[in-house]
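Hmm, what's this shape?
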Amino acid sequence: MEETCKTCAFLSQDHENILETEYWAVALSPKQGYLGQCYVNLRQHKGDLAELTDAEWLDFSIVVKKIETAIRDTFHPSLFNWTCLMNNAFQSNSPNPHIHWNVIPRYSNSVTFSGFEFTDPEFGKHYDTQHNLDVPGGVLRAATAEIKSHCSKTGV
């Protein structure tokens, strides 16, 4: 873990991961504009996709299957957007990127979970990075538990 890395800092925070493998940790994003939005974080600090080993790529493919299946079974999104941008690291004079992916479930219809309605007003277009919904910690914990439960049942 590197002190100046936001992803390393996120990995060390006190939150429950949905899924952990030898190389990757998946956690629900505190931003839930898109219900089930997650971060898939490489557990070791590397700043470039070209640095990933074959084993890390293979493990990532398993994570993709498990997390998409679990979120689909839990919330029934229409599709998934995946991004690996790492742009924020380069807003600093000393960039320190860390490989992580954003998983953004997309919904053609609104979804209500734990008393909150989640909508996707840009469905069919690029997702809106400013489309966030502040939800209480209890809703985040409930969503984490639901996805985690389905993750353990995927059999992948």
